[in-house]
Each structure stands twice: as C-alpha cells, then as structure tokens.
Input
Amino acid sequence: MTDRLLRRAALVLAVIGAGIAGYLVYVHYAHVQPICSISHGCEAVQKSKYAKVGGVPVALLGVIGYLAILATLFFRTEAARLAGAAFALVGFGFSAWLTYAEANKIHAWCQWCVASATVMTLLMIVLVSRLLASPPPGSTIAARQQLA
Output
C-alpha cells in the first residue's frame, strides 16, 4: 500500500475512534446510560473502577489519544510517522489491558469499548505498516534512495 492510502485509512480510523471516545465522554459527563444494544454491560463497564485512571475518565484519554494520532497525520515527516505509530502502539496496549479488564475483572462488555479497541488495533496496524513502508515523499531517506 502507498503512504497516501495508509494515511487516508488512518485518518478515517482516527476520526471514527475520536467519535466513539467522544460519545463515551459525553455519557460520562452527562450522567446518562450509554446506548447498549448488543450487550448489556456498558453501564457496568462505565461505572467500574477501570473507567478512570487517576480520576480522569478513560474515554477522555481515548479522545486525547485519537486526536494526537490525527494531528500526526497532518505532517509528512519521519518524526510524525514515528509519533503516530508510537501513539497507536500505546493506545493498542492500553485498549488490550482494558479489554482484559472487561473480560476478567468486570465480567461485562461495553460494545463502544470493544469498538474503540478494534479501531485502535486497526490504527496500530495501519500506522506501524506506514512507518515500516517506504519513507514519506520529500524525506531525507527518500531523497537518498533516489540518489542510490
């Protein structure tokens, strides 16, 4: 896949992820029950001790993470590609831990949380693939490869 296609895929995924996390932030601060049509554990997950880290809602951390990834996509530098992949790897690890907590600690599933974890997993795959693919156009490495 080309860098352009991977970047576009990451852009779409980051917007979807920010939307999901944004909805969960709204649910948290509006003190309303999340729409939970597939499973009936959304409220249990949202009210669990795992829903906050240091007093900060996990969903808010998700919004910040998705927006940070989104921001890296507007720069075509090696540093931005590395930062995007790093943010996605951290997000993937955190999502994996939260999914583990849903299954083994809370014993309830939140469809929004699973959707966010899926989006973050796809983002990690796309952004790591983008990082490992050929260097971005205009980069120092790309220029060196053209000279060789």
